[in-house]
Specification:
Helix content: 40-55%
Structural class: alpha+beta
Shape: globular
Strand order of the largest sheet: 7-14-13-9-10-11-12-8
Largest sheet: 8 strands, mixed
Length: 577
């Protein structure tokens, strides 16, 4: 049994021993609080992921640990990981997929990745037969319709929210827990949509590579439209044009975003009224999202509007010619041309033409469904956050907590006793608050095999343990959004502070999530250290029409702030000038 660093840490897996932060680091950027992970990680996300694998047919329940124990995902040193061994076995059971292709989608050229160790249990004819049936269904199923039905059901659930003020502390905790079955179901849908998108993008990549056109793969899945995580960016672009066209709004933003909304609401200017109308409508639609938003203590656009206002301040400075609609239209035309070219190269192979055109036609629907399903999960989590925040604020008003977020420092198993006697947990909460602050200053290992890494293996955030890439160096990643762009690098590690991104600069980040989309409006290109073709950075960059490279190892440490770099979104190569 491993020695746990954090109170909600999981046990590692002997059967499936390799875990990675790849992809899952988009929604779990920060260390997890005990209540977040023990209540929802264990009882919603892990079982939801398993449910999806059972529906696909890739695994049977007896292949995993008993319910209530994490294996498909896990928390180690406070950070959430996905089980890469499980994903590799999934690849072995999907006809046409390979471990190499799935590794590329998660790791890119990341060094020192543990090789897959074959196990006789990996190959399973019954599972392959079931997965084959699911695979065929991808080419005949519209994932948007059931995902949209989920939203109708979710909206009805949210409309039935009880009056928090009339509920006891114990009843608020009960409501918080009552949302877990819905969270499990929505997460299953998200995984199903994600796996479908992953398979289709892999089919496209493999066929493009087979005809000597690997650089066209990113174009085939670009500008597919109806991507929710990009829609908010398009809406904010229109708001940014209001600011740019108004001397009054420009002057207001020039004074800084702190107190901006208060100043505008006190203003009698018509421009301020128009802006606030658009702003309030945006927050009504998107206020639930934010950085690391599946962690319950995460701020949201609604609770911390400065997050969006800072990005708006960057976007307003971009010229009208940088319109994402214009660039997206251009990318859509390039996509059609890329599809036509691949089909031409496949001439004479009717079976491959049919497979490729079906994948190219459906990949947009699966990408849209993936992002929409993720939005639904985020909405559900925000509802859970609202309940536990109401509880935490009560305890804060009573002087039992110093901030509402401290209610998250107890585990799900401790929560009932805590609610019954919060004062008895004072010392424990203070101790855990200090540990969480320490963990939040750490950078967890990207991948590990076997026993979880000790705290000594965690680096300090912002450390400079890699050599700066010299002029002429080429950093290799995965091309995930087509195009080629040269501009000045801007290293961005968090949305918590003003990035000072100038129009046309290249965002260089460890990872991005849905809350970063509006910042893409001012950027010329994006480079991220993790992710692949269906990661957030890739999907949104393709929709707003800027090049992007993912899985560029050590980019935030090897690329010097302000250096001129070229991003080739077709090949994934980032050249330092």
């Amino acid at each position: 049994m491993s020695s746990k660093i954090w109170v909600c840490d999981s046990e590692s897996s002997a059967r499936f021993p390799v875990f990675t932060r790849g992809n899952i680091g988009e929604v779990f950027v920060e260390a997890a609080s005990p209540l977040t992970w023990s209540a929802y990680g264990v009882h919603a996300w892990e079982p939801g992921w398993r449910d999806a694998f059972y529906e696909i047919g890739a695994f049977a329940p007896e292949e995993f640990k008993p319910p209530g124990e994490c294996e498909v995902i896990g928390c180690f040193g406070g950070y959430v990981y996905i089980n890469m061994s499980v994903v590799r076995v999934l690849a072995l059971r999907i006809p046409g997929m390979t471990i190499e292709s799935i590794d590329k989608s998660f790791f890119g050229d990341y060094p020192d990745i543990p090789p897959h160790k074959p196990d006789l249990r990996d190959r399973n004819a019954e599972r392959v037969a079931d997965v084959t049936s699911w695979l065929k269904s991808l080419f005949a199923t519209d994932p948007i319709a059931p995902t949209n039905q989920d939203r109708l059901h979710l909206d009805a659930l949210l409309a039935r929210r009880p009056d928090f003020a009339s509920r006891t502390d114990a009843q608020l905790l009960d409501y918080f827990r009552s949302l877990r079955p819905e969270g499990r179901y929505l997460f299953k849908r998200h995984v199903l949509n994600s796996r479908g998108a992953n398979v289709l993008t892999s089919v496209i990549a493999q066929i493009c590579q087979a005809v000597g056109a690997s650089d066209l793969a990113a174009k085939v899945s670009a500008a597919v439209g109806d991507i929710d995580s990009a829609v908010q960016s398009f809406e904010l672009w229109e708001i940014s044009r209001l600011i740019r066209a108004s001397p009054e709004l420009t002057a207001a933003f020039g004074q800084g975003v702190d107190g901006l909304l208060r100043r505008l609401r006190a203003s009698g200017e018509q421009a301020a009224k128009v802006f606030l109308g658009a702003w309030d409508a945006f927050i009504e639609r998107w206020g639930f999202t934010g950085p690391s938003v599946w962690e319950l203590r995460s701020p949201t656009y609604r609770s911390q509007p400065e997050i969006v206002l800072r990005m708006l301040d960057r976007a307003r400075q971009a010229p009208d010619a940088a319109s994402p609609q214009v660039r997206s239209t251009q990318r859509a035309a390039e996509r059609e041309a890329a599809v036509a070219e691949v089909v031409q190269r496949l001439a004479g192979n009717a079976e491959m033409v049919g497979r490729f055109t079906a994948a190219a036609h459906l990949v947009g629907a699966y990408l849209a469904a993936r992002e929409r399903g993720k939005i639904h999960c985020t909405l559900l989590i925000d509802e859970a956050r609202a309940a536990v925040r109401a509880l935490g604020r009560r305890l804060t008003r009573r002087g039992l907590l110093s901030s509402w977020e401290q209610v998250l420092l107890v585990t799900d198993e401790e929560a009932d006793a805590f609610v019954a006697n919060p004062a008895s947990y004072g010392a424990l909460i203070a101790e855990r608050a200090a540990v969480l602050e320490m963990l939040s200053s750490k950078e967890p290992p990207f991948v590990f095999e076997g026993e979880p890494p000790p705290l000594s293996a965690f680096g300090d955030r912002g450390r400079a343990d890699m050599e700066i890439a010299p002029a002429g160096a080429e950093l290799k990643g995965i091309g995930v959004s087509p195009g080629r762009y040269t501009g000045r690098a801007r290293i961005i590690t968090s949305l918590a502070v003003d990035s000072e991104l100038e129009p046309g600069e290249v965002i260089v980040a460890r990872t991005t999530d849905a809350s970063w989309g509006p910042l893409f409006l001012a950027a010329g290109a994006v480079v991220v250290e993790t992710g692949a073709a269906i990661s957030h950075a890739a999907i949104v960059a393709r929709e707003v029409g800027i090049p992007a490279a993912a899985s560029v190892t050590g980019a935030t440490r090897r690329i010097r702030e302000g250096s001129i770099i070229t991003v080739d979104g077709n090949t994934g190569v980032v050249t330092v000038h």
